[in-house]
Each structure stands twice: as C-alpha cells, then as structure tokens.
C-alpha cells in the first residue's frame, strides 16, 4: 500500500491545452496520480491520446498549462530551468520511443553519458558494463549506434536511463523494437531494478504482456488516467 513517505512522484491537477488552428485542444484534463518507490506503473491508451505529452510533463521536459508535479517532495515547476535540468539528470531517467543515442559514441559511452555530465563516469563504469551484459550486449559495448540493430539501440537507451539510479524512470514504449526474448529480458531488468534500487517506473506502452507484469496499469482516455 502506498504511504506518504514512500511516494516518489505525485501529480495533482495536471492540465495541458494546445492551440490548434485557432481552437483550444485540451489533451490532459486534471491528471492526478501517485507513484511509490519500487513501483512499476504502466499507462496504456490509444495512439494520439496524449501518453507522450503526459510523459514529457511528468519528466519536466514540458510545462503543463496548470497543475503541480512533486518528485521526491520537490515542486519541480517552481524551479528555474537550470535547476530543473540538474534535477532531471540526477533524479529522472528517460527512455524515449526513439532511442536518441549519440552517433559518435559507443554503446558504453552512451550509457555513461549522464554519469559523465554528473562527473561520475569513472565511478559508474563497472555498473554500466554490468547492466549492458544483463541486457545481452556484452559483445556490443564498443559498437556505435550505426553498428547496432534498432532493438540493441533501444536496450542501450534503457540502460542509459537507469545508470544513475534515478528515483523515477519514465519510458515511452521501451519494448517496442524488441523481439520476444529481449523483451522478456528487459521486463526482468525493470523488475530487478525496481526491487533492488527502489526505482519507480512509469511506462507508456501498447504491450499488453509488459503491462500485465507491472504493479498497476492505468488507461489514458478523454484526458484522464483511470486505474
């Protein structure tokens, strides 16, 4: 059961309105949700319903029209943009639908990039190698993204998201480019990290098998998340 001290992400009254062709389009309408440490939460919904918009707001990559977001008790949208950027690097991990790896860096260097920004690349070097081995990329660590398959790039992106042991990991279709075997390996890794490091995961997905393995599954419909 969620208790106040265990809640790592709390959203209250999140609204997002876009202007389109002179009309106001409400994509998110009064989103309220709590996510606890070590909890895995899936959010499903039809394409275009606003899952990516919600993920960007929960990760402070976009501002809501109104509402409040607290992560580890901090009101993120009260911070300056510089403080938000530093906060994201330390406390939030991202896995996007497209992996966004740096083309000139190897798989291991991409994984260690957040640690490099924080001045911890040497400290986390061994952890990066271990995590890449866990997702089946032991022989691919020195390869650049153009030498990797789409599924391999996505696994690198997942490891990059968790390398800093962030409090919250936000993922957009993390298993979308993976075959069944690698999807199962990824799902196992997410569960291990949630249990071991008490990381919270919020995953936007169409993958029913993945959603069934989460602790909770919500549906985004008509701008609201229903659990």
From TrEMBL:
One annotated Gene Ontology cellular component of this protein: membrane protein complex
Keywords, sorted A to Z: ATP-binding, Nucleotide-binding, Transport
Similarity comment: Belongs to the ABC transporter superfamily.
Name of the protein in question: ABC-type antimicrobial peptide transport system, ATPase component
Residue ranges constituting the ABC transporter domain according to the UniProt record: 9-227
Cited PROSITE patterns: ABC_TRANSPORTER_1 (PS00211), ABC_TRANSPORTER_2 (PS50893)
Pfam family, one: ABC_tran
Organism: uncultured bacterium HF0130_06E03
Sections of the chain in a coiled coil: none
One Gene Ontology molecular-function label: ATP binding
Lineage: Bacteria, environmental samples
InterPro entries referenced in this protein's UniProt entry, alphabetically: AAA+_ATPase, ABC_transporter-like_ATP-bd, ABC_transporter-like_CS, ABC_transpr_LolD-like, MacB-like_ATP-bd, P-loop_NTPase
């Amino acid at each position: 059961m969620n208790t106040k001290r265990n809640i790592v992400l709390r959203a209250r009254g999140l609204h997002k309105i876009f202007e389109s062709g002179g009309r106001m389009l409400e994509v998110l309408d009064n989103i309220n949700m709590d996510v606890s440490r070590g909890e895995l939460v899936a959010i499903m919904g039809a394409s275009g319903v606003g899952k990516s918009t919600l993920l960007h707001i929960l990760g402070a990559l976009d501002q809501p029209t109104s509402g409040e977001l607290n992560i580890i008790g901090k009101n993120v949208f009260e911070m300056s943009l510089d403080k938000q950027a530093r906060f994201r690097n330390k406390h939030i991990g991202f896995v996007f639908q497209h992996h966004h790896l740096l083309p000139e860096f190897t798989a291991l260097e991409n994984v260690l990039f957040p640690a490099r920004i924080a001045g911890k690349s040497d400290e986390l070097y061994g952890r990066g190698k271990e995590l890449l081995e866990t997702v089946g990329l032991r022989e691919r660590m020195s390869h650049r993204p153009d030498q990797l398959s789409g599924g391999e790039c996505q696994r690198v992106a997942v490891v990059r998201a968790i390398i800093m042991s962030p409090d919250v990991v936000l993922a957009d279709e993390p298993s979308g480019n993976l075959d069944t075997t690698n999807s199962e390996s990824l799902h196992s890794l997410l569960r291990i990290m949630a249990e071991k490091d008490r990381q919270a995961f919020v995953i936007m997905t169409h993958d029913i098998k993945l959603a069934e393995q989460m602790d909770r599954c919500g549906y985004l419909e008509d701008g609201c998340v229903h659990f």
